[in-house]
Amino acid sequence: MSQLPDLESLRLLVLVGDVGSLSGAAARLGLAQPSASKRLSTLERRLGLVLVERTRRGSRLTDAGRAVAGWAQQVLQELDGLLTGAEALRAKRDAELRVAASMTVAEYLVPGWLGELRRMRPELYVALQVTNSEQVPELLRGGAVDLGFVESPRAPAGLRARRVAHDRLLVVVAPAHPWARRRAPLSVAELAAAPLVLRERGSGTRETLDQALRRAGAAEPRPLVELGSATAVRNAVIAGTGPAVISELAVRTDLADRRLVAVEVEDIELHRVLRAVWAPERPLAGPAVELLSVIRRHRPGLATGR
């Protein structure tokens, strides 16, 4: 057969068997009788079989027609199952959102975004996986999450990206630290030579700092201790462990309350862009699009793409 039978013709054939007439079957499908007759003739040509015996008293299925109608009924039932299953998957997709976010974004930005989204969609289930920027692309490529947020200096290769916020890293110390009383800015060399409380390798904060020092011609930072979250770094600095380079998002309140002091560093660029990322083979839909709309309303200046 050069062409497969179309589904409407199969439905028509099944109905002819059920109601015992072509006109009755055509009426059930909302077809004019000449159109229905043409459909059946086309189906018979495609299958190379006589399916309907037409008489003055009506139409009835031939033996071949009854066999084909039985198989057609199975095909249509399977199709109904496919459509029902697809609708269930769409409903599930529209009722849940799986997000992966780097530590700083997850701690200081995502809760506000998700809170507004949930006020709009109270029935929405959101699963948030908190990790570092290095792991977010792997979760997206593996299909474990729908949308990711990273704080690395560059958008991950092979992913679609959209800027969602700006951030900057600050050098901070406890008020009792000698740097808190400095009047002159730190040099890049002094910063690189000092033992620092650092985020772990693979985090966007660490990658941003490492890249900024390289661009300034300085050595890699010296770890005094490496910690797995901005909150842990902040707490270590407040406790007097040592200076740190940390997101401004994590220490705004501490700077205002003088629990921490920001130290100026000359000739180094510590601003960065925070991005939403997703896999190009799985275009954004439903709640993921709605979440980006929430973010855009929060940050209207960052509504455009990569």
Q: Biggest sheet: strands, sense, closure?
A: 7 strands, mixed
DSSP strand (E) fraction?
15-25%
The total of beta strands comes to: 11
Structural class by secondary-structure content: alpha/beta
Tell me roughly what share of residues is in helical segments: 40-55%
- Kindly report the average pLDDT value: 90
Poorly predicted spans: 300-306
Tell me the span between the first and last alpha carbons.
49 Å
Number of helices: 12
The gross shape turns out to be rod-shaped
Radius of gyration equals: 32 Å
SSE inventory with pairings:
Elements: H1 7-19, H2 22-29, H3 33-47, E1 52-55, E2 58-61, H4 63-94, E3 96-102, H5 103-108, H6 110-120, E4 125-131, H7 136-141, E5 147-150, E6 160-173, H8 188-193, E7 195-199, H9 204-215, E8 222-227, H10 230-238, E9 244-247, H11 248-256, E10 261-263, E11 271-278, H12 287-298
Parallel strand pairs: 3-4, 3-5, 7-8
Antiparallel strand pairs: 1-2, 5-11, 6-9, 6-10, 6-11
Helix pairs in contact: 1-2, 1-3, 1-4, 2-3, 6-12
Outline of the structure:
The chain is α/β, with parallel strands linked by helices. The chain is built from 12 helices and 11 strands. The C terminus is likely disordered.
Task: Describe what you observe in this structure.
The strands form three sheets. Strands 3, 4, 5, 6, 9, 10 and 11 form a seven-stranded mixed sheet that branches. This protein has a two-stranded antiparallel sheet with strand order 1-2. Helix content is 45%, strand content 22%. With 306 residues, the protein is of the alpha/beta class. It starts with 6 loop residues before the first helix and ends in an 8-residue tail after the last helix. The protein contains twelve helices and eleven strands.
